[in-house]
Amino acid sequence: MKFYPNTLKAFNLLMLLIVLVSSSSCGNDDNGFLLNSPEKGASLSASSADTIIYVLVDNASLPIYLSIPDGCNQKDYAAVVVMHGSGGMWKDDNPAGGIMSSQFNEWKDLLSKNCMVGAFVDSYTPSGAVTRSGNWDNPPNIFKISTQFVRPRYANAALTFLRNLTFDDGSKIVKPKDIGILGFSDGAGAVAATLYDSESTPSNWEWTQKYDGKEYSSTDGVRPPPELPSNGGFKGGVFYYGGVVGRGYWGGNPCDEDAMTNNIYKVYAPMLFQIAAEGYLAENALCMVDLLIKKENPVELNLYEGVGHSFDTDEVEQSALARKNTIDWFKQLFSMN
Question: Residue 100 carries which DSSP code?
Answer without folding.
Answer: B
